[in-house]
């Protein structure tokens, strides 16, 4: 190798390195940085059935079993950027919301298919993008002790907090959710 070959290497190697670095920056890093932010999800409890306190006098007269709990959950979304588009749900094993009270799962439900389109919502808020009906199995009535605890908490504190967790869709990057929802004393549906 001659001295001029060494000089050419010293000249071209940094230039080629800079061109490669520029391409990595433009084609890989910038699209990640420029990606629209994910929207903000929230969950509301819009209806509850099967948590009424059993009337002791009525229970003695009727042998009918307690009704399993059913929760209607509305998923709301806010801060949807104009270029954002994602679909989720579909009822697969990975798209389930579970409702629990103090670590005890009371009900679960598959998330139906839904889509979020930033062109439609554009940084606005969209309430009730999808409604999930979470219910226990037909034979999964709540034990009386737990039902009494829920009823007492609702009467004394004026509300009961339930945990809702699950996934809206792994494929769509909508990810895992964990929320607290409340059922208030005197609310008509819950």
List its traits.
190 residues, alpha+beta, Immunoglobulin-like, 2 domains, four-stranded antiparallel sheet, three-stranded antiparallel sheet, 4 helices, 9 strands, elongated
Structure description:
With about 190 residues, this protein is an alpha+beta fold. The protein folds into two domains: about 1-35; about 35-185, Immunoglobulin-like. It has helices at about 5-35, 55-60, 120, 145-155, and strands at about 40-50, 70-80, 85-90, 95-100, 105-110, 115, 125-135, 160-165, 175-185. The strands form three sheets. A four-stranded antiparallel sheet has the order 5-4-8-9. A three-stranded antiparallel sheet has the order 1-2-7, with no helix packed on it. Strands 3-6 form a two-stranded antiparallel ribbon. The chain is elongated. The relative contact order is 0.19. The mean pLDDT is about 80.
In brief, what are we looking at here?
This protein is α+β, with helices and mostly antiparallel strands and 190 residues long. It has 4 helices and 9 strands.
């Amino acid at each position: 190798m001659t001295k001029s070959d060494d000089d050419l290497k010293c000249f071209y190697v940094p230039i080629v390195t800079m061109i490669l670095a520029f391409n990595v920056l433009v084609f890989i890093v910038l699209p990640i940085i420029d990606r629209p932010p994910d929207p903000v999800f929230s969950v509301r409890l819009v209806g509850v059935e099967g948590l009424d306190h059993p009337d002791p006098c009525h229970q003695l007269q009727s042998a009918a079993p307690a009704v399993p709990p059913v929760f209607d959950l509305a998923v709301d979304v806010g801060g949807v950027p104009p270029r954002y588009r994602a679909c989720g749900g579909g009822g697969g094993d990975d798209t389930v919301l579970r409702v629990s009270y103090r670590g005890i799962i009371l009900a679960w439900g598959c998330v139906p298919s839904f889509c979020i389109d930033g062109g439609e919502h554009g940084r606005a808020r969209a309430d009730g993008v999808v409604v999930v009906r979470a219910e226990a199995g037909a034979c999964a009535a709540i034990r009386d002790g737990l039902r009494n605890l829920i009823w007492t908490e609702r009467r004394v504190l004026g509300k009961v907090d339930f945990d809702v967790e699950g996934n809206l869709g792994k494929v769509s990057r909508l990810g895992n959710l964990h929320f607290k929802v409340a059922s208030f004393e005197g609310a008509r549906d819950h």
